[in-house]
Design a protein that fits this description.
With 437 residues, this protein is of the alpha/beta class. Helix 10 runs parallel beside helix 12. The two termini are 37 Å apart.
């Protein structure tokens, strides 16, 4: 795994078992962890508990983790530079187990949530709270060459993103723990605080970065957890109407999000009659279309044979279909924000509508979690936000491999809380432990 100079923390530490003497806790304690074995193949294994490697490391006892639509890109093998045995998972919370000598703001026993990105806290971007763009935690050569610049390392998200072990495990090592961990107060249970790790900050960034404002009509592609919370947050920002679009095996999610908020309108693209497109239907629902379009799906899900074949042949990594729909659907000078994961290159991009109609196409980037998580924590505390609206299941880490299969099949699973041996009992109003087998 090639890296450039300037790394502030050790990379390619994706499983302590890769070098037990160097990376594993000297006690020899074992832990359960979910690892990538190959395309569409993950497995729960026993590996070694990680140890403190650097002064500002924190070792967590993981009390909660989850699965995200972004994890499916790893599962499908669409993210490059995965190695067999890499520990997955970028959303997790826990209790501090041990700290390095440079940690002054945390102590063993503290309840915390980890940001999915790993920031140094000191570089130009980190000083502006743009934590997802940290210059010093991911020096991967391929990523730098493809994107023209560095982005932050990420937990459990391949060596393309630094090669850090993830949190779908019983323990996790957090580099720069004084920066990348947020204390959780007693009035915020894990079943709420966990989602500060990614989904809440990502949804909020999607909404505010794209500029949803009072009176806007907003269309959202994707009714998964990010799309659902983006809908809730669009209303918080004053949106007049919110229309959520989905279909195929995931069409049930439209009924789900509607059941949680009756103000949400839905559009099932698989039910459209011949000759009716998503664009034409949206313009029928709202004169000249919505003001804002939010992409909360991803670029790997091609609908047409042309894009499917081009992706299979390696002629593109992502389909442009959703982005084109967004641009042709919004009003002239409308705003389109991309939050769903796009990793490389696309064909048949409608640059004409972008230029001629003055469409504002915004790459929302990986959300800078540190910019938002303190404010979002307050919104959880005062009830402005409630993650229980998206939470459908609580499962044991022992069933993580089954969870990937069912989540990939869109099997009526929206958002999950994954417990470990360190987890407490379910918080009031949250799902009880169930089995997927």
């Amino acid at each position: 795994m090639g890296h450039l100079d300037g790394a502030a923390t050790e990379q390619d530490v994706s499983n302590p078992a890769r070098d037990r003497e160097k990376y594993a806790d000297p006690s020899g304690e074992k832990m359960k962890a979910l690892v990538w074995n190959g395309k569409n193949d993950v497995q729960l294994v026993e590996t070694f508990k990680p140890k403190v490697l650097e002064d500002r490391d924190v070792i967590l006892k993981v009390t909660g983790s989850t699965i995200c639509g972004s994890d499916l890109h790893l599962y499908h093998g669409t993210i490059v530079e995965l190695q067999k045995g890499d520990i997955l998972g970028h959303e997790f919370c826990g209790k501090v187990d041990s700290v390095g000598p440079g940690i002054k703001n945390l102590k063993p026993g503290d309840r915390v949530v980890a940001s999915f990105q790993i920031a140094c806290g000191e570089c130009m971007y980190c000083q502006k709270k743009l934590s997802s763009q940290c210059e010093r935690t991911n020096t991967n050569k391929i990523a730098n060459t493809m994107y023209g610049g560095r982005t932050a390392g990420m937990f459990g998200y391949s060596h393309f993103c630094g090669g850090f072990a993830g949190g779908q495990a019983e323990y996790a090592r957090v580099p720069y723990g004084d920066v990348n961990l947020l204390k959780l107060p007693d009035d915020v249970p894990d079943e709420q605080g966990l989602y500060l790790s990614d989904v809440l900050g990502t949804s909020w960034n999607c909404v505010v970065d794209t500029g949803v404002k009072e009176g806007d009509v907003v269309a959202i592609w994707g009714a998964g957890p990010i799309g659902q919370m983006a809908a809730e947050m669009s209303f918080l920002n004053g949106a007049k109407r919110v229309i959520v679009i989905d279909g195929g095996p995931a069409a049930w999610r439209l009924d789900f999000v509607k059941s949680k908020n009756s103000k949400i309108e839905t559009l099932n693209y698989t039910d459209l009659p011949r000759g009716t497109t998503v664009t034409s239907k949206l313009k029928e629902m709202e004169h000249n279309g919505p003001d804002v379009a939010l992409e909360c799906a991803a670029g790997e899900y091609a609908k047409s044979w042309a894009h499917q074949l081009e992706m299979m042949a390696g002629l593109e990594t992502d389909t442009s279909e959703i982005v084109n729909e967004m641009m042709t659907s919004v009003k002239n000078f409308g705003r389109c924000g991309i939050t769903g994961v796009y990793v490389g290159f696309t064909n048949h991009f409608n640059i004409g509508t972008l230029m001629e109609r003055g469409i504002r196409l915004i790459g929302n980037g990986q959300a800078p979690i540190h910019m938002y998580w303190e404010d979002l924590l307050k919104k959880l505390q005062d009830g402005t936000l409630d993650t229980k609206v998206m939470l459908t299941h609580r499962v044991s880490i022992d069933e993580m491999d089954t969870l990937y299969k069912k989540f990939d099949a869109r099997d009526h699973i929206q958002k999950v809380f994954v417990q470990t041996k360190f987890s407490g009992p379910p918080a009031p109003g949250t799902p009880e432990l169930t089995t997927l087998k």
